[in-house]
Write a structure and sequence with these properties.
The chain is of the alpha+beta class and 419 residues long. The chain has 2 domains: 241 residues, Bira Bifunctional Protein, Domain 2 (BirA Bifunctional Protein, domain 2, 2-Layer Sandwich), CATH 3.30.930.10; 87 residues, Anticodon-binding domain (Rossmann fold, 3-Layer(aba) Sandwich), CATH 3.40.50.800. The chain contains 14 helices and 16 strands. An 8-stranded mixed β-sheet has the order 1-5-6-11-10-9-7-8, with helices on both faces. Helix 1 runs antiparallel to helix 5. It is elongated and about 90 Å long. Bound molecules: adenosine monophosphate (AMP). The site of adenosine monophosphate (AMP) has 17 residues, from strand 6, strand 10, strand 11 and helix 11.
Length: 419
């Protein structure tokens, strides 16, 4: 027997029922973000590896161990995009978007690739909806961006949403803070998990994410970044909070909030859903004022977020998949002449913009009526060799109708005009 092949570990097929639910996510994103003036962008699925090395940061888990990197036939190092912000900053610089009215507001719905430990809610190819506003450091951009993320989750009826907000300050303040944190970690090195200990030099902030009990104990006493903010950064954060309060958003300030990417400055936030298990983060983001410059563009402030499509769907509950409507099911009750007439009728119905399905399974008439019921067809045309009938599937009434009159009749009925 030939071995049956499977999709690679950590990936999944989007089957037709799933695809209906995903279309709802896309429609919600278009509605919520489009209404706020965000326009859709699509960047390539792969980029020069250097973009992520520079943009996301060499010390991050993503760049260290999670990227799908390969050499193409021309010897260039390319990487399947692990995230959406660095590519958008690249596109902003490449297309001279700084010359447009600022901020430039963009949204995306794309797939991303990370070599992560596969488990429920964590995949190696996953989809994100994201929004980025480039070119303004106004605290209102931060607050509006956070509110839009929450609005999208509300629109999708994501359950038990919890929003945490913090500020990481400027890169300079973070450097000073990093040293203080490293001192604290080194002083308690013997209590830390091996993983956190190994990353004291490279990425000490991630120690806040550890779920190792002794490490958590050490982190309770650790210096807090919020206490190291410069006066301007503290003022910016206060302004963001005041706007969120004015908008009546329920959120929590969490000084231990760190994100897995290096580029964040000032505001960061994360949204979790209590309806999810261990992988409870549905989305997150923040401000990245140095990133466009980092990838070779002009100094440009930016703010944005991404939310995981699979996790939004998981946290939104099952929800009934909406099957496409069927106005007319064309059944065949006869030989070759009936089959040809049925084929022509289905084509005519589609030209008239009816949702029409033609019997293609070679079923008996009884089987065809059953199938019409399964797809919830509103009407069934039964086409014979010498005549045809139209059945109203709601009332069960059936009448002889000439095949040439079926489409006009169905159109009249659907418009509520009767026979
Ligand atoms: P991040 O870009 O890491 O901030 O992730 C933003 C959101 O994308 C997360 O809150 C998740 O909802 C989703 N996400 C990130 N990584 C994965 C993954 N490996 N599988 C599924 N969803 C993910």
């Amino acid at each position: 027997m030939i071995e049956r092949l499977q999709a690679p570990r950590g990936t999944f097929d989007v089957l037709p029922d799933d695809s209906e639910r995903r279309a709802a996510v896309e429609a919600a994103a278009r509605q919520v973000l489009g209404a706020a003036g965000y326009r859709r962008i699509e960047t390539p699925a792969f980029e020069a590896t250097e973009l992520f090395a520079r943009g996301v940061g060499e010390s991050t888990d993503i760049v260290q161990k999670e990227m799908y990197t390969f050499e193409d036939g021309g010897g260039r190092s390319l990487t399947l995009r692990p995230e959406g912000t660095a590519p958008i900053c690249r596109a902003y610089a490449e297309h001279g978007m700084h010359k447009l009215a600022q901020p430039v507001k963009l949204w995306y719905l794309s797939s991303f690739f990370r070599f992560e430990r596969a488990q429920a809610g964590r995949y190696r190819q996953f989809w994100q909806v994201g929004a980025e506003a480039l070119g303004s450091d106004d605290p209102a951009v931060d607050a509006e961006s956070i509110l839009l993320a929450v609005a999208l989750l509300d629109e999708l009826e994501v359950q038990q949403v919890r929003v945490r907000v913090s500020s990481l300050g400027s890169l300079a303040a973070r450097r000073d803070y990093r040293e203080r944190l490293q001192e604290h970690l080194r002083a308690h090195a013997d209590q830390l998990s091996a993983e956190v200990r190994a990353r004291i030099d490279l990425n000490p902030l991630r120690a806040f994410d550890s779920d190792h009990p002794d490490t958590r104990e050490v982190m309770r006493e650790a210096p807090r970044l919020l206490d190291f903010l410069s006066a301007q950064d503290a003022e910016h954060f206060a302004a963001v909070r005041a706007l969120l309060d004015a908008a009546d958003l329920d959120y929590e300030v969490d000084p231990t909030l760190v994100r897995g990417l290096d580029y964040y400055t000032r505001t960061v936030f994360e949204i979790e859903s209590g309806a999810l298990g261990a992988q409870s983060a549905v989305g997150g983001g923040g401000r990245y004022d140095g990133l466009v410059e980092q990838v070779g563009g002009p100094p440009t402030p930016g703010m944005g977020w991404a939310a995981g499509v699979e996790r939004m769907l998981l946290a939104a509950g099952e929800g009934r998949a909406v099957a496409p409507e069927v106005d007319l099911y064309v059944a065949v009750d006869g030989g070759q002449p009936a089959r040809q007439a049925a084929f022509a009728l289905a084509a005519e119905a589609r030209r008239a913009r009816l949702h029409a399905q033609l019997e293609l399974g070679g079923r008996s008439l009884k089987g065809q009526l059953k199938q019409a019921g399964r797809v919830s067809a509103r009407y069934v045309a039964i086409v014979g060799d010498t005549g045809s009938a139209l059945r109203d599937m709601d009332s069960g009434d059936q009448e002889d109708v000439q095949v040439s009159g079926v489409v006009a009749r169905v159109l009249r009925e659907l418009r509520g005009l009767g026979a």
